[in-house]
């Protein structure tokens, strides 16, 4: 569909909303997150002012519902395990136990990140000239960096993989201080930054441009809570740097509590995401 047939809105080069007039009359409104998460298109018939939701076909709805459930549960469980790992690190007696709990949580984060990417890849698309959504052929991978939903979820998935390097390295024994900072702390920082970038893109998608507050929008709350979790993860990572001179962390309490509270944010976001479905 060419933009000359309607209006488009979004952030920078990304389109997050399209409005056009279908061949049969009326007005159709497509929003990227609404279509990707709920499989919905808003359509008003000729002469009507209030649009009504038009859902995608059963194939797309079934896909979106399954992928959303997998992603939501993965982030809920992964966040809970990260929070438990941080609690063990703060109050427990074995660093090895906390490291294995973190590693298990990281696997759930990997799963949630890839499920989110699959949802963006396989979301239905607006049909040119019609007031409906078209189902796409299933794909395990597509390269679509010009779409903000794909870019946001792709960066999120890469972030979970980078965290995996951090979590695997934390299981190793006998690392020098330089190796600890290079193999554990550096990937942790990179992963946190990628999570922040992904969250910012998600905010731009939800707000169709400049980030703002949309307190009545469930999608906004999910994105905002996850972004808060990313900020807390970054604070935790900064505090977890090992000083070469002393061999101690900048602040172990902040590192543990930042991870715990940030992980609870992701877990809460996962619970809310269970309700953001077709």
Question: What features would you highlight for this structure?
Answer:
7 helices, two-stranded antiparallel ribbon, 7 strands, about 280 residues, 5-stranded antiparallel sheet, about 60% helix, alpha+beta, 2 domains
Describe the structure.
This is NADH-ubiquinone oxidoreductase. It comes from Streptomyces sp. R33. The protein is α+β, with helices and mostly antiparallel strands. It has helices at residues 32-38, 58-91, 95-121, 148-169, 177-207, 218-239, 252-273, and strands at 6-11, 14-20, 27-31, 40-44, 52-55, 125-126, 133-134. A hairpin with a 6-residue loop joins strand 6 and strand 7. Helix 2 (58-91) packs antiparallel against helix 3, helix 3 (95-121) runs antiparallel to helix 4 (148-169) and helix 6 (218-239) runs antiparallel to helix 7 (252-273). 44% of the residues are buried. The model has no long low-confidence stretch (mean pLDDT 90).
Strand-helix topology:
Blueprint: E1 6-11, E2 14-20, E3 27-31, H1 32-38, E4 40-44, E5 52-55, H2 58-91, H3 95-121, E6 125-126, E7 133-134, H4 148-169, H5 177-207, H6 218-239, H7 252-273
Antiparallel strand pairs: 1-2, 2-3, 3-4, 4-5, 6-7
Helix pairs in contact: 2-3, 2-7, 3-4, 4-5, 5-6, 6-7
Short synopsis of the structure:
This protein is 59% helix and 11% strand.
Low-confidence stretches: none
Please count the beta strands (DSSP E, at least 2 residues each): 7
Structural class: alpha+beta
Largest sheet descriptor = 5 strands, antiparallel
Transmembrane segments: 70-88, 100-118, 150-172, 184-206, 218-242, 254-275
Protein name: NADH-ubiquinone oxidoreductase
Organism: Streptomyces sp. R33
Keywords: Membrane, Transmembrane, Transmembrane helix
């Amino acid at each position: 569909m060419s933009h000359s047939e309607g209006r488009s809105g979004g952030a920078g080069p990304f389109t997050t909303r399209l409005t056009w007039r279908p061949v049969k009359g009326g007005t159709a409104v497509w929003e990227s997150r609404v279509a990707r998460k709920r499989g919905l298109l808003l359509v008003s018939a000729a002469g009507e002012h209030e649009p009504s939701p038009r859902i995608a076909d059963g194939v797309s709805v079934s896909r979106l519902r399954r992928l959303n459930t997998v992603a939501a549960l993965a982030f809920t469980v992964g966040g809970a395990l990260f929070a438990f790992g941080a609690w063990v690190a703060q109050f427990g007696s074995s660093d090895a136990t906390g490291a294995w709990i973190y590693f298990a949580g990281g696997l759930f984060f990997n799963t949630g990140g890839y499920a989110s990417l699959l949802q963006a890849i396989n979301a239905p698309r607006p049909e040119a000239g019609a007031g409906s959504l078209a189902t796409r052929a299933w794909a395990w991978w597509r390269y679509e960096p010009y779409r903000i939903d794909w870019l946001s979820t792709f960066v999120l998935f890469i972030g979970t993989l980078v965290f995996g390097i951090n979590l695997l390295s934390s299981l190793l024994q006998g690392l020098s201080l330089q190796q600890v900072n290079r193999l554990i702390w550096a990937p942790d920082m990179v992963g946190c930054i990628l999570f922040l970038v992904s969250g910012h893109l998600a905010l731009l998608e939800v707000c169709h441009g400049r980030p703002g507050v949309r307190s009545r929008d469930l999608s906004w709350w999910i994105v905002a809570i996850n972004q808060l979790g990313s900020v807390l993860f970054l604070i935790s990572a900064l505090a977890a740097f090992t000083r070469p001179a002393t061999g101690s962390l900048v602040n172990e309490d902040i590192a543990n509590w930042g991870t715990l509270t940030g992980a609870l944010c992701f877990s809460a976001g996962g619970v809310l995401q269970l309700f953001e479905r077709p």
